[in-house]
Each structure stands twice: as structure tokens, then as C-alpha cells.
């Protein structure tokens, strides 16, 4: 867009209009569904075009005339008007930190979850949570299965091991009426139209609002964490002295992040009046923050000793012996609940030179997230070099492959029936597979035994009239055998078949990322997350990527994100620059240019030609945005007494966009400016000055895109008073 065009661009959003009364409806763009008229105003009243509502810099406003008629509803009035229509230069403002006494981080994972905390007076000490209820005797579990059990009347019963064990102990018929949820976080990632009404389905088929399920889980963490914090605190802590941090995948978009925030409000972690008390941390980013603190003895470097056929080049030890040793060290360390971190950056970073780049691959239960960072010396801050990427390539993919294998052997209809009629037994079967999955390793010659619940064997015989052994024999799956002890015997080939599709997706995604211009020459690859503990994934990563970079795995790989989330809560400014995952903007009017703009975008008003639906970019995809950098736009109400300004936000995953109607552009949210408190002032100004002051009333909106969430604030320039501003991505 050239400068001449910029000077004549106006805000254009015919999808939503300012409301005279908060209870009135909205008029949506005719191309959208649900076109509605205000309840108390006639169409003629609402569609009255006012040239005073479109301000052009340098224009003689006294010369404007009233229109003789109104054009079509899709092209007539803007409920708000930009006083700074062209993109204003972004600026960086300082971040004001609010003092907190303690930071509590919750790593809300797909398969396992946990929390940790640190007191701000001793930020180098991270306290892990107490031993969880249930689990294996004698083992200190610092994360718990992400499982939730509700009673038949939807009351909270238990979470984690307690939920899993309680559900297991229920009578099969009784279990059908209880609500058991596991791996439910993936629903938020896979739902394209996420709202506050999105539902989750239990293993038995009942449905509950997802926001309530997440709130139950977060409330459980809140109660446990606060009790432990208070036990260790020497003083009485008030609720507003606790800063909460919740981790989410970096590939989650704004609706999913807002969903977690709303769930935290519902759970009572913080109130909507204190949003700064809750931070949303991106999982690979949190891992990166912690990795920069690592010392050399706290990591395994896969690239130090090349391997051949599962052995070191000198044949001295098997490939995975170092991992077994590291896991043993971790098991011993887990009985200690306190971790110390470096006050500065760790020894590992001393090997890095200025400008060195590294990738963090968070391989979790549900998703794999990749982020590319550069550490800035000497301050130790981080700079994101390429937008976060990833996909649903987590360890759950192996579970789904196992379920698909069972469907192939026993029939998909039987498996679905078994899950519905014997839900607790199905959970037992998945737990049995999970335990054996963790022991799978490359080069393993011994078959893995997976116990089938007796109810599975009995139910299959009733359902099919034949034995499980007969079904296996007829399936012609030679790498799966039946044991007379009631177990499936999976050969190494069978386990490899289950792992390979998911692992191949991970490796391919990392390889594609390394081909990007911004990422070429990366020196380090950090594998973190629970799935990174798998020797199957470690071997594949070393074979495919070990020649291009050093592959580093922290010893406490499953706790890396949790510790990093605590560090992020202590210093949210540590990531100084991020990359925008999408292009964001609003629709505006520009002066129509023949030959440049299509005729179907032409709007003629008062003898002037305008082009509608042009995208006014706030930020572009993969654009670098510094923390605290802001984008400003100013708008004015279109009518006296207007109560709200609603601004539709559009987004796209490309930058090659001109109009908000282009393919790939979608309405993703809305900014609402509440003018209720300004009504009296505006009306008084209108009475005194015949509306001239009202016409010039400027609402300056400030947006931040450099944080983990998009934020908006607004101020009435005439009075200096804050305007209540909110941004909503869940109401589309």
C-alpha cells in the first residue's frame, strides 16, 4: 500500500456495529450468517451514513454534506472511526513487574501433569510437589497421570493416580455411570471451533462441558499447591501474592490459550480483575529457559559417541546404557524435592558463540512443539528466530496405533463396544500398554507381554463366540502371539511398527524446520518432554539428525518444562523477542484506485469512491515483535450515546493477503471497548458544544503481540481515563 493510499484508509468492519443499548443485537456482514437488526432501532436509523464518522487527515470537515440516501447494508457505516488510520509505528514500552511472594507453575500435560514453585526471595531454588497419592509403592511421583474422575452427579471425586485407581475399583456396571477423563487436553488442540460450550466425552460416552473439566483439574492443583506453599512459608501468604503459570503447547492458538485462562478463572486461581497474576507459558519456550541454566553433568549429549548397530564405535557398551544410567540418577534425584538452578547461564552455554542458534523440541504426550532460539549475551535473554511449529505427534500417537492394531485383530465394532460396556477394563488395558511402551528400546530381542483384562477375554468370547487366541490366529499378524497366561506377546518388530509413524512425523518436521533460512546452521537440538525419554525416539533422532547438530537431552527431561515455567514466572521478560504465528488485522476503507482494486469492492458515498474490506495489518506472520512493543490505533464512536465499540479481528497464516474476504482469512476474535463510563461525559460535551467535542472524541487502543497472549488496553484521550477493553477469541 503506497503512502497516498495510507492517508485515506478508514476503519471498515461492517460485520459488527456499535450498540445504542447493551441489550441490542448486532448487524453482521451479509456474507456472514446470522444477520440481525438492533432490537430498538429501525434499519434506517442504524444505517444512516455520517461522513463525520469517517475522518480523513487534512479534510475540511465543515464542508461535508449529509447523504441523500443509504447504500446497501454491507457498505454503508462504520461504527468506529480511526483517527490514526494508517499503521502507526510500533514502539517499545517498559514492562512493569508486580511484586509476588511465590510463583507456582502447573505443567498441564496430555498424559501427565504436575506443579512446582519457588519463593521470589530465593529464586534459585525450585520446590517440586509432594509425592502423589497412588502409583507404584516406594516411588516418588513428581508428575501424575492427567486423569479426572467425577461422580455420576458431576461432582469432583479425584485426580491423577487416585482417579485411575478409584475408577479401576468400581463395579463394571457402576463404572458406566461415573465420568472418567484421560488425555483430554488433546481435545483443545484438535477442536477448530473452540468455545466455552465445547464438550468432552468420557470413556463411557457421556459428555460434559470442557471448561468445567479443566476447571476441576486446575482447582485440584490450586488446593494442593497452596497447602504445600503455606506449609513451607514462614509468613502468611495472601491470595494476591501468588503468581500462577500454566503451560500450553506453543502451537496452540489464541482461542485455546484464552480457554485455559477462563478455566483458571473458573477454578479460582485468580480473578478476571487481576489477569496479570496468571501467565500462560509456552512449553518449548519454558524448556528453553531452563536449558540455558544447565551444567554439563546435567545433560546427555547423543552426539558425543557415534554408534553402529546399537553399539558404540568401539563396541564397548550398548547405545542406551547411558540413558539407563541417567534414568537411574533421575530416580534417585526424584526422592529429593528441591532443585537448585544457576544464577546466570550454565556451563553448556559457554561453548556457544554470539549468534549461535538452537532448537528445542518438546516431545510430549499429545503434541510435539518446536521453537528456535538464540541466546543473547551477556544478559542471557532469548530471541525467537522462527515462529513456533509442530503438530499432534506426541506419544499418544503410539497409543492410537496400538488401538488400531486391536481393531484390526478383534474388529473395530468390538473395541468400541468394549470401551462403552467395560470402560474401567479398557482403562486397565491402556495402562498395561503404557507400562510396556516405556520399556521399548531399539535392538530389543525379547517380546513385550501386555496383559489382557479377564473381562476383555470373556467379553470377546460372548460377543464373537470364539476365543482371543482364535482371533489372533485368524488375523495373520505373525509378530503378535498369544500367551496361555492371558497376555499378548508383541515382538520387537510389532513395537517398532507402533512407534514408527509417530517418530517419522517428528523427525520429518525437525528436518523441514532445519531447511528454513532462519534455522540453517543450528548447532544444538534439545529433546525435552516425556516422550524424549523413549530410547526409540532418541535413536531415531541420533541417526537422522546427529550429523547436523549436537543432540542434547537433560537428565530430568520430563521435568524440564515444569522447572522452566517456574523460571518464566520469576522473570517473564527473559524471552525478549518472539515471532508472530499469524497475520492479524482489521478491515478498513481505502480510496478506490481504478485498475488496482476490483470493482466488486467499490463503494460510492457522497461522490467519493472507496474500496472496502482491505486488511489493515497489525502484525504479519513470522514478524519479530519485541516484548513490550505495541501497536496503536485510535477510533471514535459513530453516534452520540454509543455504549460499545466492537472491532472484528481477522487472521491468516500467510502474509500474501489484501482483503479480509481473501481465501484463508477468517474472523478469529473481537475487541470490545466499553464506553458506558464515558456516556455521561460525552453527552455533556455534546450539549455544551453542539457535538463538536463528541465528534473528536478519541479512544486510543494499544495492542501487544510480543507476549504469549495478545493483550489490549484503551484510554479516552480527551479525559485520560482508562476505557474497559477486552479481546475475545472464544465467541466466534
Short description:
With 732 residues, the chain is an alpha+beta fold.
Description of the structure:
By secondary structure, the chain is α+β, with helices and mostly antiparallel strands. The chain is built from 19 helices and 37 strands. Strands 1, 2, 3, 28, 29, 30, 32, 33, 34, 35, 36 and 37 form a 12-stranded antiparallel β-sheet that branches. Strands 15-26-25-19-20-21-27-31 form an 8-stranded mixed β-sheet, with helices on both faces. Strands 4, 5, 6, 7, 13, 14 and 18 form a 7-stranded mixed β-sheet that branches. Helix 10 crosses helix 15. Residues 1-96, 306-321, 330-335 and 688-694 have low confidence and may be disordered.
Question: If you compute it from the alpha carbons, what radius of gyration comes out, rounded to the nearest whole angstrom?
Answer: 29 Å
**Average pLDDT number:** 78
The number of distinct β-strands equals: 37
The fraction of residues in strands falls at: 25-35%
Shape: globular
- Intertermini distance: 29 Å
- Describe the sheet with the most strands: 12 strands, antiparallel
Estimate the helix proportion, in percent. Answer: 25-40%
Tell me the structural class.
alpha+beta
Number of helices: 19
The low-pLDDT segments are 1-96, 306-321, 330-335, 688-694
